[in-house]
Amino acid sequence: MNREKKVLPLIPLRGITIFPNMVIHFDVGREKSIAALEEAMLNNQQIFLATQKDAKIEEPVKEDIYEVGTLSTIKQLLKLPGDTIRVLVEGTNRGKILSLTNGEEFFTVEAEIYIEDEEQEVSEKVSLELEALTRSLKDDFSDYLNLSGNTSADIILSLDEIENSARLADVVASYLLLKQEVRQELLECFDVKKRLEKLLVIVKNEIEVLKIEKKIGYKVKKKMDKLQKEYYLREQMKIIQEELGEDDEDRKEVEAYESKIKKLKLPKEAKERALYELSRLKSSGSYSSEGNVIRTYLDLLLELPWNKQTKDAVDIKKAREILQEDHYGLEDVKERIIEYLSVRKVSNTLKGPIICLVGPPGVGKTSIARSVARALNRNFVRMSLGGVRDEAEIRGHRRTYVGAIPGRIVNGMKQAKSMNPLFLLDEIDKMANDFKGDPADALLEVLDAEQNSTFRDNYLEIEMDLSNVMFLTTANSLDTIPRPLLDRMEVIEVSGYTYEEKYHIVKKYLIPKQLGEHGIKNNEIKITDNSIKCIIEGYTRESGVRSLERKIGSIIRKAIKEMMEKEKASVLVTPPVVEKYLGAKVFNYDKVDKEDKVGVVTGMAWTAYGGDTLPVEVMVMDGTGKLELTGQLGDVMKESARAGYTYVRANAKKLNIDGDFYKSKDIHIHVPEGAVPKDGPSAGVTMITALVSALSEKKVKSNVAMTGEITLTGRVLPIGGLKEKSLAAYRAGIDTVIVPKENEKDISKIPQSIKGKLNFILAEKVDTVLENALVGADNNED
Ligand code: ADP
C-alpha cells in the first residue's frame, strides 16, 4: 500500500463518516467549513473529511477530531437559502492526520494518504482467504438487504461488479446503518482482511437482529390486527345497539340478574352456576339465540325455591280434624293416613314407603292429598304422569338439545315454592315406556329416600335435595304399576261410593262447595233431597262423584240464569226442575232385563272407572263348531271364554247338553257395549253360565249377577274389587250376587246399606254357580 503526504483543507464532520468509494452529500453551515470548501475548490477540489468525536461541539479543536479521515473530491456545490451550502463529495482514500493547524479562516491538515493498490501483491494463502471472506460478505450482505427490504436492484448489481475486496468492504460499510463509533472503527481499519472479518461479524449480527425484529413485528401485527378488528366490530355493535336503544336494556337486565343472585341465598353450586351463566349472557348479547337459551335457564334457576321451607305442623289431632272436615266417609282411608302421619312423626323422617291411593276416578284421591298437605302445612303440587313415556319427561333434556326443557320434577318444585312440599304424583299407573328409557326408573330414583337428596335434572345440571319432599301417589288400578315402584309403596284403597254416601257427599260438600264457587248464598238456590236422589240415579253412573259434581254445577248455573232472567229472589230445585235443567234422565236403573232369558247373563266387572255390570250374550246356531268372540275382548278375557268352552264340552253329559255341539253348532259369544274394551279373567263364570244356558236352552235368572275366574276343572277362583262390583250390581237392580268362596272375607268391607240388600252366594265350584243362576236348575227356586 502506498502512502503519500498531502496538505489539505479540512472539514470536521458531524454525525457522518465517509468511506472511500462512497458518494454522499451533506450540508455545510459553519464559516470555517465554508472557507475550507472554497480553498478546496481552488485546489483540485480535494478536501480532507474527518469526523468530530462529539457532534454537538460548535468550534472543535484538534483533540475533538478523529485522526483518521477520508480524502474526498468535491463533485458539486449547491447554495441553499441562508448561508448553507449543500456539497456532494466522493470519498477516495483513507488518510491519517499528521498535524492540524487551526487557522484563522479554516483548518488545514497535513495527512498521510493511503492508496490501496488495485492489483496488490499478496501471498496465495492470503488471496484465497480474501476471496473466501469476500464471497461470504457478498452473500451475507445480499441476505441482509433482502431481509431489510432494501432490494433496490442497483445495489445488488453493483455488488456483483465489485471485484476488489477493499472496495467491497467500504461499499458494504457505507450501506450499513451503524453507530458512529463502529463506522469510525471500520474506517480506521487499514488492513483489508481484518476489515472484511469485522464486517462479516457485523452483517451476521444485523441479519439476526433483523430476523428477530421481523418475528416480533409479525406477532405484533397479528395481535394488532385482531384487536383492531374486534374493537371495530364492538364499536359497530355498540352503535347499532344504541340506535336500537338496546344497550341500556341489556345492562339493566344483567344488573337485575346480578342483584337477584345476590339477594337469593343460593346454595354454593347453584350460585356459581348462576354467575357463570350470567357471564356467558354478558358476552353473548341477549338478542342472540344463545342469549335466549341462557336467559330461560337463569330464570328457572333463580325461580327454584332453593332455601325456602315451610314449617311443618304435625299435630295429629288437628290433621284428623282437617281430614274429617274435608271428606265425608272414607273412614278407613282417613285412619290409614293418620296412622302413616303418626309413624312419620315419631320417627321424624320421611323415609319409608310412599302412600299410593288407589281407586276409581272421582272418589277424592286428589282431594285427600290436598287435605294432607293442608293438615301438615305444606305447599301442594300435583303432577300427572298419565301418558309419560320418556325418561326425559321426569329428568329433563340435556341442554345440548335444541329446545331442551327441565323435567317435571323440577317444574313441580318451581311451582311448589318450597323445598318441602307435598308432591302428588297422579296416575302413576298410566305411565308407559318406550325406547327412550323407562320413566319408572327415573321415578324410582326420585322416590328413593336414599338417593333423592342428590337428584340431578339433566337440564338443570345442579343437584337438588328432594329428601324433604313428601311424595304421595295415586292410581286407578294396581295392575299396571311397575313392580319395583309398587314394592316401595303403601297401598291405600279408596273404593267407590254407595248411593247413600253419594247423597251425603252431595248434600254436605258438593252443593255448598259449588254454591260457594258461584258466589250464591245457601237460601237463594235450594236443591231438595228428592232432586239429589234424582240426579244421582238418573244422571250419573260412576263410582266417584266427579260427574255428579259437574251436574250440580250445571244445575246451579241454570238456576242462576233463571233467577236473572225472571228476576226471582230464589229457586227451588225439585225433580221436575232437574229434568228441565239437565234434560231427560240418562240412566235408568231398572234397565237390567226383568225377564229371564236364555243365553244372557249379567256379569260384574271392575274397570278403571269403578264397578259395572257386564252382560254376556251367547247364541248357538247350526254350523260346524266355530267359536266366535266379539265385543273388544282382551286376550285374558278371550282365553277365559275358551276355557269355559272347553269346560262345557268336557262336562256336556253332566250338564245335559248334546255332546256333539262342538261339531254341529257354531257358537257366538258377544259382550255388548262393543266399543268399550274389556279384559280380565273374572268373567269366567259368566261365560260358562251363558254357554250352558244357550246350549241347554235353560233360562238365566234376571235378578242374578256373578263374578269369578274359572279353572278347566271347574273351580271358581277369587277376584278383586268385590266392593265396587257389588255397588254396581246393586245400582243395576240386582238382588242376588254369586261370588267366589274365597272372596268371603271381602264381603265384610261392603257397606251395610248395600250388604243388607244383596243376597250373596258363595261358590267354590262352577256347579254351584249354575245351580243358582239357571231357572229350574236348583231345588230352591222361587
Ligand atoms: P280423584 O282424585 O280420586 O279422581 P278428586 O279428588 O278429584 O278425585 O275428587 C273429585 C271431587 O269430589 C272433588 O271435588 C272432591 O272434593 C269431591 N269428593 C270426593 N270424595 C269426597 C268425599 N268423601 N267427601 C267430600 N268430597 C269428596
From TrEMBL:
Its EC number is 3.4.21.53. Residues 8-207 form the Lon N-terminal domain. GO terms for cellular component: cytoplasm. GO terms for biological process: cellular response to heat; protein quality control for misfolded or incompletely synthesized proteins. It is found in: Cytoplasm. Residues 595-776 form the Lon proteolytic domain. It catalyses: Hydrolysis of proteins in presence of ATP. Keywords: ATP-binding, Cytoplasm, Hydrolase, Nucleotide-binding, Protease, Serine protease, Stress response. The keyword Isomerase does not apply. CDD domains: RecA-like_Lon (cd19500). HAMAP family: lon_bact. ATP-dependent serine protease that mediates the selective degradation of mutant and abnormal proteins as well as certain short-lived regulatory proteins. Required for cellular homeostasis and for survival from DNA damage and developmental changes induced by stress. Degrades polypeptides processively to yield small peptide fragments that are 5 to 10 amino acids long. Binds to DNA in a double-stranded, site-specific manner. This is Lon protease. It comes from Clostridium folliculivorans. The lineage of its organism: Bacteria, Bacillati, Bacillota, Clostridia, Eubacteriales. The gene is lonA.
